[in-house]
Amino acid sequence: MDQHKQTDKLIYYIEDNPANLRLMEQLINRWTSFKFLSASEPVAGIEEIKQHSPDIILLDINLPNISGYEVLQHLRENNICPDAPVFAVTANAMETDTQKIKDAGFDEYISKPVDIETLIEKLNNAIE
After folding, report:
1. What is the DSSP letter of 55?
2. Which residue, of 24, 33, 36, 49, has the fewest CB within 10 Å?
């Protein structure tokens, strides 16, 4: 894997579960050279995304108050980071769920529990 391409790339993750957030941060920091920022609350996350213009955005689908679908809709409608691929991160990866994710406009999805090889591959594909 070519980590050189990753060094100046930023991943931003909105996830309300602290354990899932820590796990993703550990995976990204250990297996990639991407920079990693996150928020546990969707509104704060959207504000930080505006400030930092990440290269890839990861959104948990089941967020409190505002779902990952609604965050994606807000990002798209307000033209926030329009070039950044947005990944749905979900434990619901049945065929009907994955179709709903695609229909909503997500570029990709990561199922929980996270498979590290799949994660790295999808992140690298997103920045090529």
Report:
1. S
2. 33
